[in-house]
Amino acid sequence: MTQDTRLDAADLRLLRQLQRDASLPLVELAESVNMSRSACWRRLQKLRESRIIRQQVMLLNPAALGLSLTVFISVRTNHHNAAWSRQFREVIDNIPGILEAYRMGGDVDYLLKAVVADMPDYDRLYQELIAADLFDVSAGFVMEELKNTTSLPL
Length: 154
Known about the structure:
Blueprint: H1 9-20, H2 26-32, H3 37-49, E1 69-76, H4 82-93, E2 98-103, E3 110-116, H5 119-130, E4 136-141
Antiparallel strand pairs: 1-3, 1-4, 2-3
Helix pairs in contact: 2-3
């Protein structure tokens, strides 16, 4: 299966179920998508080999771990070259609270998503971030999470 290969209905059922609960034992997974265990296993292997399934993880509850503040950080820079970009990647890679980072088009150069314990913890993260020689950093703090999913629309 390559990225150009279309997924059939059975693949889509399998992927939807895995997005809901990837911890199911193979027997239960196969049963939930109306497949034999061996057919389910073969499809899983093909989906992994083709990198459609890129990783299997457990999702943790940030608030239960004392990380109750989610922050979206907008970054603008005056440096638009490969050397600065590499340095910036190193900085954000070494800040554990930054979960996601995107290079953007438009007014903002980068958008970061971070989780921290509280405002002093965000300030610590901010101090680490501004060491990267940034032009402008602004943050938006999440007051209420309305939707949060990792499931892709299949």
